[in-house]
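Extended Data, panel c. Modelled sequence:
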Amino acid sequence: MVAPLVQTQALHKRYGDFEAVADLTLQVRGGEVFALLGPNGAGKTTTIRMLMGIFQPSAGAARIDGLDCFADRVEVKRRVGYVPDEPVFYDHLRGREIIHFVGEMHGLTRGQIEDRAGPLVQRLDLADATEEFAVNYSRGMKKKLALVCALLHDPRLVILDEPTSGLDPAGIRTLHALVREMAAAGKTVFYSTHLLEHAEKLCHRVGILHKGRLAMAGTLDELREHLARNGSLEEIFFLVTRPAASESAEEPRRTNP
C-alpha cells in the first residue's frame, strides 16, 4: 500500500465554543485525487488552512509528507502547490512579475520559471494578460494565475480549494485535464469543491464533511455499497448530510479513513 502523503489525526479547530472541525482523522495516499466535500460551513476551508499551516489546530495533528503542518509550515509550503478559494495578489504587480516572484521564492532560475510557466500560461489562456496589473484581473483570471504559481515548483501535492469558481467552461475543462495529468504522473491532488459532478468524474476517493466532522470517506463504489447501490455521488452526498444522517455514517467512516 502507498504510504499516506496527507494525514490528520483527531484534528480539531475551535473558535470559542464553536467547533469548526472536530475529531478529523483522514489519510490521503500518494498518487491519488481526493475530494473533500461538504455543505457551506462544513469545515473544508478550515481544514485546508490547517494543512497549509495558516491556522494552528486547537487539538490533534496534521502532517504532510511526515512534516507537522503548523510547526514545519515553511517547509510544507515548499512541497505543496496551493490554490486558495480567493487568491490575493499585490494589486500593482503585473501577472508576469507575480509569476517570477513566486518562482524565485522557490529557488528557481529565470530560465526555469519561463520554461515552466510558459506552457501553463498558454494552456490557461493567460498569455495576453501577463503584462496586465493584478488589480485588473477578474476572479477567474486570478484563479488561473494562482494555478500557474502553484505548479511552478513541480510539487508532489497540489491542494485546490474550490478551483473552478470564477472559471468559464473552457477554463474548467483545462483545469480538469491538468488534474488528470498530475494524477497520471503520480502526483497527489487534494480537491475541495461544491460541484459534485466534478468530484465524481475526477477523484479516486472522496471525504464528506458535515458540521465539522468526517461523516464518510471512501471510493464511490464503497460509498454506494454502504448507502445507495448504483447511486450518484449527489444522492450519496444528500443522504450523508441530511439531518441525523451523520451518526448512521460513522461506521463506514471508521473503515474507510
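DSSP finds eleven helices and ten strands in the chain. This feature is highlighted in the accompanying rendering.
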